[in-house]
């Protein structure tokens, strides 16, 4: 059996539990957690900010002189097991897909009704409807004027 890995917040809390009295500074925490790279140190700082904001850890001092101690407040949200996380993720994805499909369906229906109303408004384009159309010669014979517009194809180079 494989040993369950602890998350970084769990490891930070465990380090703080091991040294409760005077508290720990950043350097002490980095040493206790074996953080030797900048990325690890930044992750620890993010976790500490989260723990302080949640009320689990108190911070006294600023910058490098900051000392962190446990407040004794319990975790407000219970930790979920792997199975519970999988079930919760499935439920979230089903709900998200349902919202997505409802949005798509509504958009499709709106497009469909819009297209139908446009089709009703346009005259039919069959051969019978074109039979009553007027040619340019017929238009001129009635006294109409035709204006020829120059296009890029008609210009000489």
Task: Walk me through this protein's architecture.
The protein is mainly alpha-helical and 157 residues long. Among the domains are: 8-70, Winged helix-like DNA-binding domain superfamily/Winged helix DNA-binding domain (Arc Repressor Mutant, subunit A, Orthogonal Bundle); 80-117. The protein is built from 6 helices and 3 strands, in the order αβααββααα. It has helices at 8-18, 26-33, 38-54, 82-121, 127-131, 136-141, and strands at 24-25, 57-60, 67-70. The chain has a 3-stranded antiparallel beta sheet. β2 and β3 (67-70) form a beta hairpin. It is elongated, with a radius of gyration of 37 Å. The N and C termini lie far apart (83 Å). The mean pLDDT is 80.
Q: Mind telling me which CATH architecture of the domain at 8-70 this is?
A: Orthogonal Bundle
Distance between the termini: 83 Å
DSSP strand count? 3
Assign the CATH superfamily of the domain at 8-70.
Winged helix-like DNA-binding domain superfamily/Winged helix DNA-binding domain
Rg on CA atoms, Å: 37 Å
State the helical fraction: 55-70%
CATH domain class name of the domain at 8-70: Mainly Alpha
- Write down the overall geometry: elongated
Average pLDDT figure: 80
Order of helices and strands: HEHHEEHHH
How many helices does DSSP assign? 6
């Amino acid at each position: 059996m494989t040993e369950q890995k602890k998350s970084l917040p769990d490891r930070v809390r465990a380090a703080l539990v091991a040294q409760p009295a005077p508290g720990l500074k950043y350097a002490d925490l980095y040493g206790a957690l074996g953080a030797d790279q900048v990325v690890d140190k930044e992750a620890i700082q993010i976790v500490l900010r989260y723990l302080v904001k949640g009320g689990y850890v108190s911070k006294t001092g600023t910058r490098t002189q900051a000392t962190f101690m446990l407040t004794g407040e319990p975790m407000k949200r219970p930790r979920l097991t792997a199975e519970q996380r999988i079930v919760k993720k499935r439920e979230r994805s089903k709900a998200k897909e349902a919202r997505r499909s409802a949005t798509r369906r509504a958009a499709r229906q709106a497009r469909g009704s819009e297209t139908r109303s446009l089709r009703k408004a346009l005259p039919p384009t069959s051969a019978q409807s074109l039979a009553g159309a007027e040619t340019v010669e017929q238009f001129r014979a009635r006294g109409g004027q035709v204006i020829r517009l120059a296009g890029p194809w008609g210009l000489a180079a």
